[in-house]
Amino acid sequence: MHAEPITRGLRKAAQRPGLYEVSHLKDHWEAMTAELKPPMSHQDAFLEAYRCLLCGGPLTPAPCMLACPASVDVPSFIGAISIGEPSEAAEIILNANPLGGTCARVCPTEELCEGSCVLNSTHQRPVDIARLQRYAMDHAFNEGNLLVPLRPAQNGKRVAVIGAGPAGLTGAFELAVMGYKVSLFDARPSTGGLVRSAIAPYRQLSEPLNQETARLWELGVEFRLGTTVDDNMRQELEASYDAILVAVGMGKDASTGLEGDHLEGVFSSLPFIETIKSAELPNVKNKVAVIGAGNTAMDVAREAVRLGAKEVTVLYRRSQDEMPAFAIEFEEAIEEGVQFAWLTNPVKYHGDGRINAIQCSKMTLGEKDPSGRRRPVPIEGSEFLLEIDTVIEAIGQVPRNEFLSGIPDIELESGLIKVDPDTGATRNPLYFAAGDALNGGATVVEAVRMAKVAASGINAKLSEQSNVQ
Ligand SMILES: Cc1cc2nc3c(=O)[nH]c(=O)nc-3n(C[C@H](O)[C@H](O)[C@H](O)COP(=O)(O)OP(=O)(O)OC[C@H]3O[C@@H](n4cnc5c(N)ncnc54)[C@H](O)[C@@H]3O)c2cc1C
Ligand code: SF4
Asked: CATH 3.50.50.60 region(s) of the chain?
């Protein structure tokens, strides 16, 4: 029964050369891990690279490069592919973005580089920048070439990085390249943060995180994985490091707190996805409701389709106009058979052991709230029961207040760290910060950008101190 929505969902992809053969999708796991941006053959990469107009120049960067938060020199790396030099292309990518292989798979390129490609204005499809980037990175990594820069002379300064997600990995890499002795701490036993645990498996299961991490090993970064930095440890770090980069991301899922949320079949988005990524498939039964309409909600809805649910409905208390998900994520969810109930708010979960219905209220939109979006207001007497056997709550993550509020003098706004946007510096001169802990959750490439800014900020600060001494 599940094959129908999956087939529909992948039809568009299957029509593109070199992508999915729908008939190969034998089971849920295969459907779950069928990559949206799969590898390219040499020939396809060569032909695609030739479509690029190699726009821009030294004084006028190409629009695709301007749209890349990590400032990857897109025309230069595509030019290298077009002359048969994929390793050179990979080096250009990695110079700007140490997570170049991950970003090739997970970046919302339709909103960024590919969305800005000049070919869009001539009614042609944009250059497939993401898959060309993947081609170059796969070429280097598959050949065992990690393209590690030469180990620099150590400058005698030590930096602690807390969190080994995209922001922490990038910050640690950049600082190591500048000659700092870097120690990288993470509570989890492996690197990658949400990329490893939460990003949809059909974008990236885990590789090439291991190769990207290995580049840091090669540069001499000390890894302290499986180590939660608590208040005591933080104070020890303050005494022994010259700077601390906080890259702790956001915490667990926010909860609706609705009556009945203890029932079997009610999931929170992060453990739901992490279970899938560990190859254990949650039992979603037939009728799934997803609460929320952000990018995570689109992901869990599409995962539920791949798990074999017969009906997947996203419930959102505002209208489509206020939906926070990217347009492309919404369109692809629709194509895969996901349905949307706008202006619909869950009020209570019903069930006996397992959830069997959600009591919902219809909403209307009132005045604008502080976020600038119109406030949803319940319509009196509009409550109704929706038969459902699975719910996945995907309404965002909460900040890591407990840890962050212990750091002296750093400024928090609604639990998010405030920094100088040009340096990543907090109000405490020892601390810098980057990643989701600043913006509440955005993209990997945005975390990369912020970590590059913070690494430069740390370098400027510590170099200035050295000059004064
Ligand atoms: C479901 C979901 C899907 C997503 N899909 C995409 C996508 O397709 N594309 C995209 O670009 N972005 C996506 N994102 C967003 C992206 O994953 C994040 O923006 C990015 O991972 C942020 O990086 P970060 O390093 O700031 O935080 P994180 O990735 O959260 O990493 C923070 C790390 O800090 C560690 N840590 C926290 N506290 C401590 C402590 N006290 N001591 C030690 N370690 C600590 C954590 O264990 C974690 O490893 C998605 C996010 C979610 C939730
Ligand atoms: S904007 Fe498009 S055509 Fe121009 S350099 Fe970038 S990818 Fe190539």
From this structure: 158-251+399-468, 266-393
Substitution candidate for ligand 2 out of 54, 82, 123 with most atoms within 8 A of CB? 54
* Spatial separation of the C-alpha atoms in residues 11 and 410, rounded to whole Å: 50
Mutate to test the pocket of ligand 2, among 47, 48, 53 (most ligand atoms within 8 A of CB): 53
Q: What is the pTM of this model?
A: 0.94
380-424 pLDDT, tens digit each: 999 999 999 999 999 999 999 999 999 999 999 999 999 999 999
CB of residue 119 inside a 6 A radius of ligand 1 = no
- Which ligand 1 atom is nearest residue 444's CA? 11
Query: Which residue in 257, 254, 233, 255 sits closest to 244, CA to CA?
Result: 233
Give CATH for domain 158-251+399-468: 3.50.50.60
